Amino acid sequence: MSSVKKVDTKEPREKRKKLPDTPDSNASVSNDLSQGTIGAVVREAMLTMYGPPQSQLFGSSPPGTQPNTGQYGPHMMYSQQASDANMSAIMNSLENINRRLSKLDTIENSLSDIQYKVARLESKVSELDTLHKKVDGIEASMNFFSAKFDQWSKDKQDLEGEMKSLQEKISSCPGAVSDLQRDTLQMKEYMIDQRCRSMRDNLIFTEIPETETETVNTERILRTFITEQLKVESDNIHFKRIHRIGTRRQGSNRPRSIIAKFNITEERDRVKRAGRELKGKPQRIFEQFPDEISDYRRDVLMPLQREAWGRGQRANIAVDRLYVNNTLYPVPPPPYRVTPDPHNTRPRLTRPTTG
Fold first, then answer.
1. pLDDT in tens, 138-168
2. Is residue 268 within 8 Å of residue 201, measured between CB atoms?
3. Given CA atoms 90, 91, 95, 101 in this order, what sign does their dihedral have?
4. Spatial distance between the Cα atoms of 170 and 26, rounded to a whole number of angstroms
5. Which residues are bridge partners to 241 per DSSP?
6. Are 86 and 16 within 8 A, CB to CB?
7. Domains annotated on the chain, with CATH
8. pTM: predicted TM-score of the whole model, two decimal places
């Protein structure tokens, strides 16, 4: 029984005072509260401060008997009052702990939000770094294009200056350009004139039969044609050169034309006048001219000549001029002839009408 009297009720008060300030106690209570075992915590605190219940110290009362409340009755009543006060203090402490835990939950949620926002900020910062690199690349490209544009602008200004200078030079010498153009046309006309003069003793004979073995007998064939078809003695005619034009086409039965260059102009004119004997025959005799004159005669002069013949007029073509009733007929000038210049006294090519 002496062991019961030695129970020290001060130790629970010291432990009660140290309980809220002890980190281990707070952690234990917080852990127990998080698990929902508040009753277990209360019982553990009661056992710590007051020891086991009386029934556990003295055993249970015999059946049918009242508990012994002799000399320990007042002490137990005092202990009960102290226990109620301690329970009230414990509940207040637990409520404080519960409020702090609620604040901890709020803080934990806030920390979670902060961590999420920090993660998003880090992602945004990473994206900003990437954008910054792209912006740096774009800026470098813009600087490159700006430099190129400046160079192009400078080159453009230089070209504009050169073109302006050239335009001033061109505008300052229009007469020189006109003179050059006129000189070019005069040179072309002169060349055509020289070619025409070199061909003036030539005649072209068409549709004269050609043999397979004809090589160097072209002159004999032409002399026979002149004697038999034109009724002109050919033994006394002097030729400088006689040959067929072009190469013989495979599988073609059409004979190649013969071109003959006469040494004496009178003999050439006599043979040409005899061409009237070929009326109704396939053979023809033509003068040879440069291509420019031949095209002008065919496209411009010959249609006008046929119109004059249709009107019953006498019309002759002398080189590139048309004479109707022995009068020069006004026709469009040939493209190779320079517009008549009163200061140009160079004689034009003229040929008297024959036949």
1. 888 888 888 888 888 889 888 988 888 888 8
2. yes
3. positive
4. 106
5. 261
6. yes
7. 1-54+77-171 (no CATH), 200-288 (3.30.70.1820), 289-355 (no CATH)
8. 0.45
